[in-house]
Amino acid sequence: MNSIIEVKHLSKKYKLGEWQKYFTLRDTLVGISKLPFNIFRKKENKGLSKGEFWALKNISFKVSQGEAIGIIGPNGAGKSTLLKILSRITPPTNGDAILRGRVGSLLEVGTGFHQELTGRENIYLNGAILGMNRREINKKFNEIVEFSGVERFLDMPMKHYSTGMYMRLAFAVAAHLDPEILIVDEVLAVGDAEFQEKCLQKMDSISKEEKRTIIFVSHNMEAVQKLCSRAILIDKGKMVKDGNVNSVIDIYLKRSQQVSKISFSKRKDRWGTGQVKVINVNFKDAKGENIQNLKCGEDVEIDVGFKYFDKMVKKIDFVIEINSFYDQNKIVRIDNKILRKEIGVKDNPVKIKLHEIPILPGRYQFSISVLGKEGEMYDCFPEAGLFNIDYGDFYKTGTMPEKGQGYLLLKYDIE
Amino acid sequence: MITHIKPKSGLSNIDLAEIWRYRELFYIFAWRDIKVRYKQTILGVGWAVLQPIFSTFIFTVFFGDLVKIPSGALPYPLFVLIGLIFWGFFSGILSHASSSLIENESIVKKIYFPREILPLSTVGANLVDFAISFTLLIVVAVYFHFLPNPLLILIVLIGLIIGILGAGGMGLLLSAFNIKYRDVRYILPFFIQMLVFLTPVIYPTTIMRPSFRYLIALNPMTGVIEAARVVFAGGSNVNWQVLGISAISSLALFVVGLYYFKSTERFFADLV
User: Total structural domains in chain B?
Assistant: First the structure.
């Protein structure tokens, strides 16, 4: 079969310092003084100069028509960069790609929606931005409205929409785009379970019934498994594995476990100014012993060690978020500001005591961010580590809900 | 449809066929700007009329009555209103276009389309504002018993084209510049304020040395405003030479702006 997408040796180079998003003239004036020396230096795409890195390096693959292919990998692996190149938002540094067919890319749900405009107006606006013309939108209008289920609010400004309504309308427009190649990034990261299911079904029918090609990036392994027959694992910009979806996901899960065993200070899958960094995280049980697996209903202490590289920093804030690993739902957030607790240099390591863990057994992932008092990001660790929660007698009844029956355990009485 | 993605360096081609395919985006962005601009304002589109009225009043009191700037055949309020309305069209496009890429950052980062559509589509909403304020201008002219020369239609058309090319060109340049250097945001208001004094809005060029009159004609709106005043006074002796200089200057601005825009375009999504 002829391939509809051909990606050959695609590479993309970025400069470090991503968090400095723009320059001021002053920065450039400083740079200009060095210009006479740079001008004679031949521009070379292949090598790396100081402060540059490969966000994507030598990626090649082919996709046949009607195939749904999942792109997986840890944060910062280059998945989004790949989609941005395939959607022509940013050019590659080397290599090329051929796409045979109309491309619809959905890198964000609701791109270009305007809060002040009504739902009806936004359907036209969003549709046009995504590449539909008015005739096509008119033809699909009723279908879009029906799929979104927001008929009653169609003439209300979007700012009065709930997040759920917003997402449903946004996905509805994009799903009716009718491209030959659909590029989708993490759209399922938001929205409720019912909505996610509906989106998945729609994408599934786009791929299986309408024989359209889908490239799907997600952290949600269940969704990738459901939708795609093939997956590509990318890590640190390089292709690790291309093959059957189940085998690739297996490799990914194994690698994630290995990564979280590397000591924190050596890990590179983080970003931020680096003024203060997390150097270790330990889980301890009631006896003060280090543990890997937590138990429902038992107390746990999380010790987080920080290192202050910038002596000017005296106070910090931190946030730990716990997500379910397979479907990437946020479960809880631990935040010192919520307890109105100040963290200073001498609070090291910070000890967080969790009482009677009310989370269902399963595999979880946590992220840690260290922030300055002005909200500046010192260290952000999106996939800091993994842990398991095992069965424990939370209710002291010897029984509890099963996997899939929610995430949290609530203490309650029935009288 | 086959899309070939490859590394880009230097100047991107201007793909007219592609711009044509995306032509509805011009209309959609303009429509959005018009819809959004006066939402949640009590007076709504009334502002398009009130702003020039207020300015005319203030300028008439200070520059017409107090400083007694000569206004030729026209009464000062009509004289200054002509200047303000054409200048408003120019500066409106300039300021909206300059901030267009930044304001639509989320779209630029997530969707592909020919980028020049964003700054250039700001022309639409400004055309609507112009149409409204121009109606006001006609009313004011009738009030002062001035019947414009039929040449007015031609002058307005030429004026709009010069305005679109000049302000559009500068807008393309500054919008691309704005992506890299956010300084533009702070400089632009001063820049526009300064430009208004380098444009014969509140004064006629007749009070200048002749050599300087040709220099100031490099400002695209000079020729337009001067010509519009001549025809509003009923005359037809438009200084075509000055208008020609302004036209060439606006075309040059457009070419330079578009050139800079297309040669930096490929970085937009990475920098915003």
Answer: 1
